[in-house]
Every structure is written in structure tokens, then in C-alpha cells.
Amino acid sequence: MGKRMKRKNILFVAMDQFRADLLFGDLSEVAELPNITALMQDAVSFRNHWSVVTPCGPSRCSLLTGQYAMNHRSVRNGTPLDHMIPTVPGEMRKAGYVPMLFGYTDTPRDPRVHHPDDPALRSYEMPMPGFEEKVEMRLDESYPWRGHLAARGYDLPPYERFYVPNGPDIDSPAFYAKEDSDTAFLTDECLKTLSAMQDVPWFAHLTYIRPHPPFVAPEPYNRLYKGKTIPAPCSLGPDIAKHPLLSEAQARSPIQRFLPGVPDLTDTPETVRTLRQVYLGLATEVDHHIGRMIRFLKDSGQYDDTLIILCSDHGEMLGDHGSWGKSTVFDAAFRVPLIIRDPDLECAGRVVDAPTEITDIFPTLLEFAGLDQPTSVDGRSLYPLMRGQLPDDWRDYTWSELDFARIPAVQDGLPSNALPFDQCNLSILREAHLTLVHFNGGLPPLLFDHRGLGESRNLADDPAYADDMLRLTRRMLDHRMTHADGTLSSYSSSKDGPIRA
User: Fold this and answer.
1) Per-position DSSP letters for 120-138, written without gaps between them
2) How many CB atoms lie within 10 A of CB 28?
3) What residues have CB less than 8 Å from 249, skipping those under 6 apart?
4) Residues 6+ apart with CB under 8 A from 438
5) DSSP symbols for 402-465
6) Average pLDDT over all residues of the chain
7) Which of 56, 61, 347, 424 is catalytic?
8) Does position 90 have pLDDT exceeding 60, yes or no?
């Protein structure tokens, strides 16, 4: 693969817990995201894009290795990533970039290459090796941001109360102004660095925590959507409510987790509506700062010399099906946005409906940089789709996984406590109309038909769907057999040396 004559910049932006229906779906009708929607008119948007795993750490491992979780095996927040797996930052260095990280990757370090007393082993929020961490911005730490607030004269509360509403209402504002929010601070730090690099090709991975909870926002974003009609959450079907994983998900992610300092918070319609409004406000705040990044590129003359990728690691249930967070099986937890602008392509406003996955972003970056794809990568470059072509062998389904084991377990009687540790996992295969969720450990499967009641009804035991159940289960097995780690299995020894298939 030939390299480009002129190495260009790469701005790789990842939002956290940003749902796809903010751009494609019911929430898009009310969400105010002028800068992202403007970028969509100048780029390629992927309408059928999916995370292959949740939560944050595993999804970012898949994003930055191009692998399914069944291969990289960093399947929970805190599960180490094998240091031998090729990654985005490691490969981009081969193209001459110094991959800069503004934010976090949640990559637990491999304990085999660190001393047991190394502080790197004491946090799951460590930056992925290969990145140059330009500013530490981790949800559990964020010391530079705290220092910034102190220097600005804020009377800082204990850090565990940073995200408690500063007032009597659950949509009271944060104690900091919008100019000093975590999102604003991270953008400021990124712009400071890039402003000094206009003559040097750069790679910046900018990772916004928001609209990830806690659901507290600075003024005016905390009440930007107050009084506006927003879509109500999807209701929970009665047969779905009986499934053991629903009890697991609700016990692990009760609504109280999403707004610290309000222990008596309950899922009343008013509370759910208010938190959904604050979430939308946080999304609009992120949009504002993405707009700042794009204006910088245009004002500095770098817009047409920069590949822009905007994505999310996974979604957020936001009260749909009575659930919060992302450790569940529903589409809202896995369907995410993806927008790519390559200034060398004439693709403004193109929308791709073919199914794509976050594993495809790594090989897309490799093609842009003129690099070969490691044999470990499961995804495929998106460039054919970006050019308006659909390869004959492009996938017609998407695949996701969830490992819900916990150390320690949440509580007695839930699957994470009742099942053996290595059986607390599930796989999801989605076709155009049917979704199969297969559980390990003998938990009952789920089958959704999106031409009917969708995720509100489980059809796994419906005799009319028996053939579909068999076909989809076989397809799941085929997928695992096809995509088992091929790092070395794609090579063969010969008298002339290793031959790669």
C-alpha cells in the first residue's frame, strides 16, 4: 500500500455514552447539535454503526485494537489488555505520528510487564501505551482540571461531590461555570497544544467524558431542554422484565448511580424526564466544543489537511426499558454515531446504511496513513463505503458482547453471583430485522423481531421462529470460528520463510 505524498493531520474524537438516535432517531428531532450536524453535511455519516462491546474500557480496547472482545479479552473495566496486541497509537507511530491523547482510554496495563508495586496497575483508567498523554483527564482523577478550578478561585468541594447539583433540584447546575467545565477545560488544553503545531503533522485523540453521567451540567446546559417536549423512554415488555439479566442490569445501574448526592432518587416519570433533559444538555455542550475544534481547523487553514473522525464508545439506556447505563443487551446501549471527513474524498453529506462496527475505525486509519493491516485486526477499512461502493462480501449483520461478571458480585441471586465467573457473558447478533442474544451458563436466550414489537417481546420460544433461532445460533458459531484470533494462524512456515495468507 503506497504512502501519501504529504502526511496529514488526524483529529480522532471519541465521545462517551453518546447515543446514535441523537443524530438518527427520535431524539434527533429535539437535540440541538448544530456543529455535529454541520460536519455531517461535509462528511460521511454511518447510520447503522455499532459498538461491539460495553462498558467503556472494553469498548475503547476494541476501538483502538480493531478486535472483538472475544479476541482482545479486556472484557471488563479493570481487565488488562495484552501488551502484544497492535494498537492505533503503536501503528500510527510507524507512519511518523506522535499520537497525542487528550483525555483517557481506560486501558488497564498488562501486569506481566509491570512490577506489582507499579502505580500503573492500580487504576483501570490508564492511557493506552503508545499515546503521549498531553493532559490527564480521567473521571476518577482529573487533577489538572481540579487545579484549573482552584486557580480560577473556586471553593472546591471534596472530589466525590464535584458532580452533585449545586442547588435543591436534580437539574440544579454544577458548581462550575460553563467556561470551566470538564468539557471546556479539555478542549482548551487540546487547542493550546495544536495551536503550536501548525507546521507539524499531528495526531490528536480527543476523548470527551460527556455526555457520560453523572447527569449534572453547568448553566445553561442543565436546563436547556426544560419545558421542551422530548421523547419518552421505551417501555419494558412484561416477558423481557422477567429475564434474569434485567434484574442484574437494574441492580448494577440503579438510577441513584447517575446523580451523586441524591440517594433517594427514584424512577418517577418526572425524574426520568429531567435526567433525559440534562443528558441532552450535556450532549449540546459537547457539540459546542466540537464546534470550537472545527473552527480552529478552519481558521488556521488546516481543515482541508485533517482527517476528522467523530465517534462514541457505546450508548446509554437513559431509562429505556427501565434501564440506565450500558451493561445490557438493548440497541440503545450499542448503537453509536460515526462521522468521518477525509478532505481528499468528495463525499460531503453521504450517508451509509451498511452495517459497520467500531472495529472498522482502526483499519480505516491504517489505510489513511498508508499502513498495512495487522493480522490481529477483525475490522475492515471503511474507505469503500466512503467512496460509495459496497463490497460484495461486506457483512450483513453486527456482533456485540458483554461480560457481566463482577468481583465481588452485586448481590445474591443475580447471574453474576449464581453463575461461574467465566460463564457470565453473552453475545448479540443483529441482522436487518432479527436480533439474537445468546447467554452463557444456561440463561434463556432473547430473540427480537424489529418488524413487530422489537425489544418489547421475546420470541425465542415462539414455534414460528424456531428456524430463525437455529439459523442465527449457527451464524453465531460461524462468526466465532471465522473471527477467532488470527494473529499467527494466518501465517505458514515455508522454505522461503513465513507466508501470510
Assistant:
1) GGG-TTPPPTT-EEEEE--
2) 15
3) 323, 325, 327, 328
4) 426, 427, 428, 429, 445, 473, 476
5) EE---SS-SSTTSHHHHS-GGG-EEEEEE-SSEEEEEESTTPPPEEEETTTTBTTS--TT-GGG
6) 95
7) 56
8) yes
- In degrees and rounded to multiples of 5, residue 286 shows phi and psi of -60, -45
Distance CA 273, CA 233 (A): 8
Query: Residue 409 has what pLDDT?
Result: 63
User: What are the backbone dihedrals phi and psi of residue 7, each rounded to the nearest 5 degrees, phi first?
Assistant: -70, 130
Residue with cell 421542551: 228
Tens digits of per-residue pLDDT, 139-190? 999 999 999 999 999 999 999 999 999 999 999 999 999 999 999 999 999 9
pLDDT at 2: 41
| Phi and psi, residue 384, nearest 5° | -55, -45
Distance of alpha carbon 177 from alpha carbon 229, whole angstroms:
26
Domain spanning 9-393, CATH class: alpha beta
Nearest to residue 365, comparing CAs of 308, 405, 411?
308
Give the number of residues written for the chain: 501
Contact by Cβ (8 Å): 279, 316: yes
What are the residue ranges spanned by the domains of the chain? 9-393
CA distance 429 to 444: 15
**Total Cβ atoms within 10 A of residue 49:** 26
- Collapsing DSSP states into helix, strand and coil, what is residue 102? strand
Q: Which residues pair with 439 in a beta bridge?
A: 426
CA distances from 253 to 148, 257, 276, 413 (A): 31, 6, 16, 16
Phi/psi at 102 (5° precision): -115, 95
Map grid coordinates 453486527 to a residue.
Answer: 398
Q: Is the pLDDT of residue 25 over 60?
A: yes
Q: What is the pLDDT of residues 347-369, one digit of tens each?
A: 999 999 999 999 999 999 999 99
Q: How far apart are CA 456 and CA 292, in angstroms?
A: 40
**Per-residue pLDDT at 374 exceeds 80:** yes
Question: Does residue 234 carry a catalytic annotation?
Answer: no
Number of H helices and E strands in the chain, helices first, is 14, 17
State the Cα–Cα distance between residues 209 and 104, nearest whole angstrom: 8
